[in-house]
Amino acid sequence: MGLSNSIPLSQVKTGEMFQINKIQLEGPLKRRLLDLGFIPGAVVEVLQKSPLGDPVAYRVSNTTIALRKEESLLITGSLIRSEAHE
Amino acid sequence: MSNFRIALAGNPNTGKSTLFNLLTGLRQHTGNWPGKTVIHAEGALDYKEKHYTLIDLPGTYSLYSNSADEEVARDHIIFERPDVTIVVLDATALERNMNLALQVLEMTSQVIVCINLIDEAKKKGIEINERKLARKLGVPVVKISARNKTGINELLETLDQMADGKIATNPIQVTYSNDIEEKIAQLEPLVQRAVGDAFPARWVALRLLDGDKSFLNALKKRQNGVQKEVAVHGYSACH
Amino acid sequence: MDTQHATSIEQLFGYSQTLTDQDVREEIVSSIYQTTHSICKDVVHYSNKEKLQRSEKLDKILTSPIWGFPIMLAMLAVVIYLTIAGANIPSDAIANFFNWIEGYLTAGFKAIHAPEWLYGILVLGFYRGTAWVVSVMLPPMAIFFPVFALLENFGYLPRVAFNMDRLFKKSGAHGKQSLTMAMGFGCNAAAIMSTRIIESPRERMLAILTNNFVPCNGRWPTLILLSSLFMAASFTGGMKTFITALVVVLMVVFGIIVTLTVSWVLSKTALKGIPTHYTLELPPYRKPKIINTIVRATLDKSLYVLKRAVIVAAPAGVLTWVLANLYIGDTSILMYVVHFLDPFAKAIGLDGFILMAFILGLPANEVVLPTLLMGYLATGALTEVDNMSELSHIFTSHGWTWLTALNMMLFSLLHYPCGTTLINIYKETKSVKWTFVAFILPTSLAIIVTFLVNQIVRGLGLV
Q: How far is CA C438 from the centre of its chain?
C-alpha cells in the first residue's frame, strides 16, 4: 500500500478497513483522537452511518467511536483489503 | 484507625462509579453513557481495621490535560498523592483502556489495576490472563464484576496489603523513541533539581517535552502555595 | 543552559521547548499504544469473534437510516404509555388512602375543638398540599424512571446522541446536548450540572438555556393528567391511554423542536459560532440488571418525590390556604391576585388561577397543579376531591375546555425553569445576565406560543 493512493477516512465505505497514515488535525481534537486510538498505523473499520448520514461510527482499538465528517475528512490513510486483514 | 486515601481512575463507562457505589454504599445512579460522572464524588469505606476515603475521579480517556476533567484527575494523582490509585479497566476494551493505566503507572507506583466487567467479557468470549498481565505491568491485577459483586473481596484484600506496604511494585515503563528517551535523560536530573523528589521526574520531563502548559501552571500554582505556607511558618526554602 | 544550578520549572519548560519541534504528543501516545498492544496480544484471548460484534449488529437496526428515528420515537412512546397505563390505578388508590386519613384527621381536630384556622392551615393546606403532590406525582414517576433507567443502563442514550447529532450540528449546538436533555427528563436542575460534559462554553450555554424545554419530573404528571382529562376525554379504555400517550409524546417532540430552533437562533445571534468538533463513544450494549435497576430507580425516585413534596409542596399548600382565607373586605387575597392576573391570563388562554399557580410554583413545578386545585376548591362549590375522575369536574366548572388544557400544557413545557434550576444556572454560569436570559427567554416564548394558539383556535371558532 503506497502512500500515493492516500484517501481521507470520510471516503471509506461501510464495512471496509482503513489504515491511518496521518492525522491532519491540530490541538485538543487531535490529542483526543490520539487518546481514542486514532494513531498513525492503527486499523479502523467503518461500522455504521447514523440515520442522517453523519456522523459515522468507527471501530478502533476494540471500541466504537463516532466522528463527524469534518474530522474524518482530515484523517488520511489507505484501504486494506478485507482478505488481507486477519 | 489509620486513614488511607484511595483514588479511582478509569475511562468513562467502565463501571467505575458502580464500583465506587458498591464500595462506599453511596446511592448514586450510574448510567451507561460516557461522561456520566460530572461531579467529583467522595465516599468512605472501612475494611479490616482501616479507614479508607475513596475519591471517584472523573472518567477520562487520558491524563494529558485535553479537558478540565483530565486536569482534575491528573492534579489529584500528582498533587494529592493518594495512598493507592485503583485504575478501573473495561475488560471488553482492554487495549484502549490500558493506556490510562500506563499513564497512571508513570505517575505513581502505588497502583492496583482492576479489570471490571469481567462477566461481560466472559459472555463475549474474551479471556484475560491476569497473572501474566500483573507480571507485565509490575503491579497487582484483580478481575472483578462490580455489578455482580464478584472479586470484590480480593480487591479489598489487595488494597489492604498495599496500604500496609506489603506489596512491592515494579511498574512497567513505556519506552519511547530513542530521540525522546535521550531528551528525557537530559531533562530528568534538571527536573529533580527544580522540583525535588516530590514528583516523578521522568513523568514531569515528558510533560515538559510535550509542552503541557496546563501542568506547568498547576505546578507553579502549587509551588507558590507551598512557599507561602512555608514563609508563614517562618522557614525559608531559599537558603 | 546552565545545568549546574537549580532552575525554576518555568525556565526548564522554556528550555524543553527548544529541544523539540516535532509532534511529541503523537509519538508519546503512539508508543503507549504500541506497548498496550503488545501486552494485550499476550494476555487477552478472543475465543469467539462472532459474539464481539453483537453490539454492532444491534446498532445496524437501532441506528439504521430507516428504523433509527421510528424506533427512537417508539421507545419514547412506549415509556410514556407504560407510565400512563400503570399510574392510573395506584393514583386512585393513593388518593383514596389520603382521603381516608384526612377523614380521621378532620375528626381528630374536631374532637379536640381545634380552632378553624389551625385546622385549615394544617389539614387543608399542609396535609392536602403534600397529599396531592404525592398522589399525582409519585405513581407516574415511580414507573417512568425505572423504565427510563433500563434504557439508560442498556446503553441506548449514546445512540440517541448518535442519531440526533446531525440536527444539533445544524442548529449550531453540541451533539452531547441530547444527553443533557435526557437528564432533563429527570430533573432540569441536575441536567444543568450535567452540561459540564460539553466543553465549549458557547455550546454549553446553549444546552443550559434550552434544557428547560424538556419536561422534568415535576411537569410530566401535569402533562399526563391534563392530556388524559381533556385530550383523550372522549375515549375509553386502552384507546384513552393511547391517545393520552400520543399527546404527551407530541408535547415532548414539540419541546425538542423548540430546543433545536432556539439553539439555531441563538447560534446566529447572541451565541454566534460554529459547533466545535467532538467524538462520541458508543459503548457496547449491556443487559441491565433488571430487578436491581427497577427496585433502585423506584426507591430513589419515590424518596425524591416524597422529599420534594414535604419540602416544597407543604409550604406552598400552607401559603395557598392562607392567601385563600385572609380577607381584605369581603375578598380574599387570593381572589385579588386572581382578578389582577385574569385579563392577561385570559389572553393567553389560561385564567388567573392557573397563572397564579405557575407563579407560586416558581420554587418547584410539582406544586403548580396542587396549588391550582386548592385555589379552585377555595372558591368553587366542590371542596373535596374523592378520586381522580372528579378532577375534571373541578376544571370544567371553572370554564375549562381542551384549549385551556392545551395552553396550560404548552405553558408548563415552555415557561421559566424552576427556582432550583435557576440557582444552578447561576452557579454554573456565574452570570446574572445569563441567568436572567434563562428565565426570560422561555417565559416570553411560553407567552407568545400560548397567545398565538389561543387567538388562532378562537379565531377559527374551534372552541
A: 15
CB within 8 Å: C297 and B29: yes
Which CATH number does the domain A3-80 belong to among 3.40.50.2000, 2.30.30.90, 3.40.50.2300, 3.10.180.10? 2.30.30.90
**Lowest mean per-residue pLDDT among B220-229, C36-45, C179-188:** B220-229
Nearest CA in chain A to C174: A68
Q: Which of B110, B130, B163 is the last residue of a domain?
A: B163
pLDDT in tens, C78-92: 999 998 888 877 877
Instruction: Give C168-187 pLDDT, tens digit per residue.
Output: 999 999 888 999 999 898 88
Q: Average pLDDT of B26-38?
A: 52
User: C317 to each of C108, C136, C216, C392, C411, how far by Cα in Å?
Assistant: 20, 15, 21, 20, 22
Distance from CA of B148 to the nearest CA of C (A): 9
**Complex prediction ipTM:** 0.90
CB contact under 8 A, C199 and B68: yes
Shortest Cα–Cα distance, C319 to chain B (Å) = 33
* DSSP annotation string for B50-89: EEEEEEEPPP-S-SS-SSHHHHHHHHIIIII--SEEEEEE
Residue B107's domain comprises 2-163
- Based on C-alpha coordinates, what's the Rg of chain B? 18
**Chains with ≥3 CB–CB distances under 8 Å to B:** A, C
B28/B107 same-domain check: yes
Mark yes or no for CB contact C29/A50 under 8 Å: no
